[in-house]
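Service request form, structural biology core

Requester: graduate student, group of Dr. S.
Request type: structure prediction, single chain
Budget code: on file
Notes: please return the result as structure tokens.

Sequence provided:
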Amino acid sequence: MSFFSDVMVLGKARISAVAMFTGYAAIAVEGSNATNWPSVVWCLLALFLLGMGANTFNQIVEKDKDAAMARTKDKRPLPSGRMSVRTAFWVATAEIVGMILILALYHQSWLAVALAVFTVIYYSVFYTMYLKPKHYLNIVIGGVPGSMGPLIAWAAMTNEVSWAAFLMFAIIFLWTPPHVWALAIKLKEDYAKAGIPMLPVVKGVDETTRQIFIYTIIMVLGTLLLPFISSVFRYSYVYIALAIVLGIVFAVWSWLLWKRRPRMESMPLFHYSIVYISGLFLAMVIDAFYQ
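Core staff response, request fulfilled:
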């Protein structure tokens, strides 16, 4: 693999791109800069660099754990020996500094800088070094950093944060546990080898599928209440329609996974959860442009 490819793997580029997508949804919903493309592009680049830097620091800390997991030991640059920790550290540092410079100098939003730096510290230090290796509810509490895209984007564009941005944050936060736990069931043995106390490792598949169903119901109800909580989403008809249809599918699927455990595979639900969150935020963008 090339150095560029390894940098993309270190930063979990596809996951970092999700922050760009949810961030743009917030920009579209806010509205005042939705088609100010130079400003939008720089903001999305800052979000991408934020995700890349935070994920790279995460992989530096988890190098030994990644070496113990079949899924990661050969694919990731650090456990495979393709890149040194020193090089990875400077890559992450450059990405975080680049992100700060964009938000501070181009967008001139110290609120966005503060939220972004909080995200890096929360994920790379609190979650990676303390929460993930010590508690089976790591994903629940650790869902904060992955949900910050809408808040940071809104702050970058307006130098403030509205309730609408917090509600978008809440949707991602509630979506994270069932999404990650569906994958964790598949990777249960790998997590056990690495000594990571994910919910399926500590509480078993039965309890994990039950928790997936509970969190899914809470998440779906939250998405359906969104138009009633915030006037910004009150006439978001595409969003409401997709929230109902996609939510029913998610709820039924998670219930079947719970009731048919362990015969039913969890990975199809994991893949569907990506379609679900993408559909919801795409609907927000569509409604924002056509309201």
